Every structure is written in C-alpha cells, then in structure tokens.
Amino acid sequence: MTKQDILENRVKSIYLGIGSNLGNKKNYIEKTKFELEKKKIKILRSSSFYESLSWPNTKNPKFLNIIVEVKTNYTVNELLKNCKEIEKKLGRKKSFINAPRVCDIDIIDYNQKIMTGNIVLPHPRMHTRNFVLFPLFEINKHWFHPISKFHIKNLILSLPNRDITSIKQI
User: Fold this and answer.
1) Predicted TM-score of the model (pTM)
2) Of these four, 20, 126, 160, 164, which has the most CB atoms within 10 Å of its CB?
3) Could you tell me whether strands 63-72 and 104-110 are parallel, antiparallel, or unpaired per DSSP bridges?
C-alpha cells in the first residue's frame, strides 16, 4: 500500500450544503440527513436552518439551507455519486440550471482539498453565497478558504450588504 492510498482511506472531515425550495423544505432537508446517515456518511454537526432568496430569479420560492459537517471513508467521487443518488431518491428532477428543487446537496469543502476537473473543490461559488457562509460560520468559526486562505469572517464581511441583510436564521 502506498502513502497516497493510506491518505485516501483515512476518515475525512467534509462540509456539505443541503438546500430545498419546494414542498415541505424542512422535511426534505431532514430526510436528506437521514439518507446521508443510511449511506454511512456520519453527520458530526449541523447548522440551524437559514432562509434566503432564490438565485438568480428571486421570484422563485425562497430556499431553506443548512451546512452539515460529516465524516466518511468515501472518496470525493464516491461521495458525489451518493449525494446525487439521494437527490434523485428524494424526487429531484433534471431541469434547467438553478431551477427550484426539493433537494440539493453540494460538497462545499472536502478536507481542505483543492481540486479541478469534473469536481471543483472547494465549491467554486461558496465564498459568494450567504446561505453557505452563515451556516458554515455557525458550526466552524475557524474555517478558512483553502485557496484564498481568507477566514470565514472576512468572506462574510466581503458579501454585498443585501446578501448580509436578506438571509434569516430560523
């Protein structure tokens, strides 16, 4: 076994964003958490619920979002595959980009890895999204962006005022 294999197989600390803006949003998020656990993705911490405007079309229903810190032995690709299976199981349909959805799971940070290709890590737009930054700050006030090295407080303070004032913790 090579050193790389040992590093790949150790338990990972990962942050996932979970959101919904259709139906009983809170229920869909709780079902998502249950399905993650069933797939051996252990939830260590979960943020409060945060309500935010739908983007880019604010006329769509508001989103409810959380961030969960999880541990798993899955590789990034295996984790993504499992997240997509959960989205489909809960009723997410293939549609146009940014369409309303019952379940959305994003890998925000995977053990501070930096990746490009079919999976981009950290999530390429996470540093501009209030519905990621606020709940992430709630569960890890010491988190920093793996690429920019900016502390989460600095990322939040760099958001436009409308993004800071339009999000609501529930």
Assistant:
1) 0.90
2) 20
3) unpaired
